[in-house]
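Standup notes
- DV: blocked on the single-chain target, sequence here:
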Amino acid sequence: MRTWTPEHIARAAGARLVSPAPTGNGPERVIIDSRQAGPGALFVGLPGEHVDGGRFAPQALAAGAWGVLTTPPHAEAARCAVPGTLLAAEDPLAALQRLATAWRRSLDVQVIGVTGSTGKTSTKDLLLALLAPHRRTVASRGNFNTEIGLPLEILSAPADTEVLVLEMAMRGPGQIAELAAVAEPDVGVIVSIGPVHLELLGTIEAIAAAKAELIAGLEQSGTAVLPAGEPLLDPHLRDDLRTITFGDSGDVRLVRSEDEDEVEIDLAGRPVVLQVPFRQAHLRRNLLPAAAAALAVGVVPQGTVALALTAGRGQHVALPGGVTLIDGCYNANPMSTRAALEDLVQTAARSPGTRPVAVLGDMLELGPRGREFHLELGEEVARSGVELLITVGPLAAAMAERFDGEVRSLPDASAAAELVPALVRPGDAVLVKGSLAVGLEAVCRALSARLREGSPTVAGGA
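- DV (later): unblocked, structure below
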């Protein structure tokens, strides 16, 4: 937006220009944290649950910000600060979203929106890996997938971006529709439908309807990428869209995946062989929606898939003593945890004598059936061949009731961070996975620190 004038910024955001900048140039970036303010930054002061960000408008200008966008009272109060552009809007968040939509429209870009009950982040990461060798591609970072994070990601896209891949999170009805209205996607990808956020939505049908808001948000020239044979999405299909399905009976399907170093995909009738430096079965399956979305924007994937997973989404970390840490601490639900268990067991099986260890925390927002889901998962852990199960949290403790192997049940992540490093043996494969609020990243940090320090481990006890 460097070439946009303050007047252009105001019009695009639907804001009032209280005071123009000393120069006619536009901002280089948009921020919502005044501590990141500096030359070229447009600080958007958003009202929060506890703190109104608009209070920090003067500090942002004092730090050299290009300007601020906030509520009229805060904009007026900042008049006496260091000169800078002052923009006022009754709803700064809506203004931020309008500005993002205006920037998206100004770019010669194709936008891909990605959502799903599980697998959306890894699919987004895979899409970036497939597209980057062919097109100038930007993909949303980490958890920048909400009504605040998504517009910030759009606004951070350089002017020469050709494909913009945006993850879209959902916590309730209407949220995907809001994100789609801001991003105006050309391609909508629904990776999966499963029992996530049941506490908020009540039924799996309601979850499907919420995810299907992405289908509804596509223009007639758009493309929907959907799991083949998913009956929950049938009521939401549109005849005026191009639809590409993926899965065993889909337009895009895995033909061969047993090879350690490559997979073969039937890409809507075109054979595609990809070199893949990862073996996780769920990641190879998620290549299908990613490849379908790439096809939708005119790219036929080829070569090596240089995948860089977002932190906490199943990265394999090699630790001293031959320990493999599978870091899935960012979030968890029944579907993603089953996939992670599959990865754990397969990882252990590749090295004879490796013990699979599962550190599993509460899976939250599952509604009245929460305990039942944890009990069922305990049965799957038992069937999987996991030798040591460590549960973290009151809900996860139910897994131990259906697991007849060695088990420890701990109340919280702090207790787990103290005990887990002492339970791990050299050569173990250790999965750490739970909902974000459980805080299992503390376990990953403690295990990594203890092993890298060379502290002794005690097999089977503290």
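- Follow-up: Residues 281-296 form the longest helix (16 residues).
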